[in-house]
From TrEMBL:
GO cellular component terms, semicolon-separated: mRNA cleavage stimulating factor complex
Protein name: Cleavage stimulation factor 50 kDa subunit
One Gene Ontology biological process: mRNA 3'-end processing
PANTHER family noted in UniProt: CLEAVAGE STIMULATION FACTOR SUBUNIT 1 (PTHR44133)
Single annotated GO MF: RNA binding
WD repeats: 58-99
Keywords assigned by UniProt, alphabetized: mRNA processing, Nucleus, WD repeat
Subcellular location: Nucleus
InterPro entries, per database record: CstF1-like, WD40/YVTN_repeat-like_dom_sf, WD40_repeat_dom_sf, WD40_rpt
Length: 147
């Protein structure tokens, strides 16, 4: 990941354990990288040939990605985008290519952030409103609280 390699990248986040980094782009893609493989690509002599640091690419959004965050347990990645959606991805599933949950709104999602406990997700929208979502670890349940 040398400078200039990803000119469309709008945001990036490390997983809580530091093993992964996710990037969100203007081309609507989310890429998941393995940090150890990124380090290998920076070495001058790659003995085993080219190293592929991208583990997965998701294309669920229809507009540029504005923000990303990992759940504190590290297996869930959440994204917010200009397409007025918040999407949840299970990065622990090797074959998962799409989000497994979606929250649709009527405004551009500017930022998303998990509480350190993982029990809540905050989202900020273009119209300056906040959405507070209660997260159940068994299955994600969404309860919107006003105020």
């Amino acid at each position: 990941m040398r400078h200039g390699t990803f000119p469309n990248t709008r945001c990036a986040k490390f997983s809580p354990d530091g093993r992964f980094v996710a990037t969100g782009s203007a081309d609507t893609s989310i890429k998941l990288f393995e940090v150890s493989k990124i380090k290998q690509t920076l070495l001058p002599d790659a003995k085993d040939g080219p190293v592929r640091s991208v583990l997965k690419t998701y294309y669920d959004h229809t507009q540029p990605i504005n923000d990303l965050d990992f759940h504190p347990q590290g297996t869930i990645l959440v994204s917010g985008a200009k397409d007025q959606t918040i999407r949840f991805f299970d990065v622990s599933k090797a074959n998962a290519k799409r989000s497994y949950r979606l929250i649709q709104d009527t405004h551009n999602v500017r930022s998303v952030s998990f509480h350190p406990s993982g029990d809540f997700l905050l989202a900020e929208f273009l119209q300056q409103k906040l959405l507070k979502v209660r997260v159940s670890l068994i299955c994600l349940l969404f309860c919107v609280y006003n105020g």
